[in-house]
Predict the 3D structure of the following.
Amino acid sequence: MSAVLPQHGSHDHDHAHDHDHGPLKGWRRWVFATNHKDIGTMYLLFSFAMLMIGGILALCIRAELFQPGLQFFNPELFNSFTTMHGLIMVFGAIMPAFVGFANWMIPLQIGASDMAFARMNNFSFWLLIPAAIMLAGSFFMPGGAPAAGWTLYAPLTLQMGPSMDAGIFAMHIMGASSIMGSINIIVTILNMRAPGMTLMKMPLFAWTWLITAYLLIAVMPVLAGAITMTLTDRHFGTSFFNPAGGGDPVMYQHIFWFFGHPEVYIMILPAFGIVSAIVPAFARKRLFGYTSMVYATASIAILSFIVWAHHMYATGMPVTGQLFFMYATMLIAVPTGVKIFNWIATMWRGSMTFETPMLWAVGFIFVFTIGGFTGLILAMAPIDIQLQDTYYVVAHFHYVLVAGSLYALFAGVYYWGPKWTGVMYSEVRGKIHFWGSLIFFNLTFFPMHFLGLAGMPRRYADYPMQFSDFNAIASVGAFGFGFMQVYFFLFVVVPMMRGKGAKAPQKPWEGAEGLEWEVPSPAPFHTFENPPKLDATATRVLA
């Protein structure tokens, strides 16, 4: 027995030794990273790289659509651009960016020393790299990249070249990464909160991610099932979606959207959490209706499972089915409206200032609300059947995803960036980035509503002359928006990463509350080795 047990006193020495070391040096620090901050940083940089790749594809699409006729690309390549733009932005940019925020902020916000499973955390990040290479590299495969649309509908997917298999494999790997990340987040939040931090005292960002993680675990296997059936149809003689063998292509749509609609909320709930942290800080008031916000978030997650077929009104669904999905979709607008009401009520009669994070948060509320209203319009079956697959739908989901997810991510970078890097960003450059992005974004996507109402179909490389003016405006706006994001990286992110700028105080925002402001800026490599003791509000550490 004595051979197994450590000698008296040696355990204490080992324990002390474990916590003396800082990060590993050089490339090993990143390759073998188990610290939640380093992994969070890698997720954020990876997602920005994917945002740039997806953005280049978007600019190729808009360059082609600048005027009628075929300018640069044949229709097949154009369809590859639309397909890969969607897949890369959803699975490569938005989702990993939010996981990066979760890695950085959740342990800091709940007073945990790190994520629960540090090595699994490392693994779930590094899985993304081969998946991203396979996705982006599919352009160089025989037959080119998949051109079936990002929804990967059968029977198109059954006719694609070998790049389709690479895409399916890449999405499997990304799904595995998401599931591992979600398990890690759930266990961290449920088991590692500081004493005194009950669930109903957690910051809303932690709440929104807890609910998002459960959603991910519920729906990623559904996507895996859909694309695995596609794979067996392609290579193993099954006929799940092939009508010639008795299969049903519409069944693919049901399975895909049963994943796809909760996925939309996976990409927006963490954004709600970020905005719910920023608005109270700059209104210098407590968040209005915290409890209702938690319940609204949970309601959105639950209802997201019963609205999937509103993407499928045009498939010949019976009227009863159309009515069910129409009313269910209108119902989900209620908890979303509760959130917007609560943010506005938080700002009401607050001592508001408009530093860059608050500008992005208010911009988010404004533009996301437009996206929400167009979603409510598309929920109506008779209207949706007219607008199905037109640019109105493109405008709607870009208002939700770009002006929703992306704006909140930018708000979060400006808000927590000083805590990450220890330096303040340039307020002037932040405001240039905000106003440039807001103007160019609306210039790009607002005209698409009118193009859609006039009947312009999406995913077409060419169009009739009457759509040319609005398309030209949208293309100019898209290039402006793209260049604003390059400006953001070169003139805001790079200086902060290099430590160039005014030194950030421990708490740069006067009205900010939460445990993350109890540690120095930049946040030290090891935080909260001994769990903090919290005051009654669970926002401050008791001395």
The radius of gyration is 24 Å.
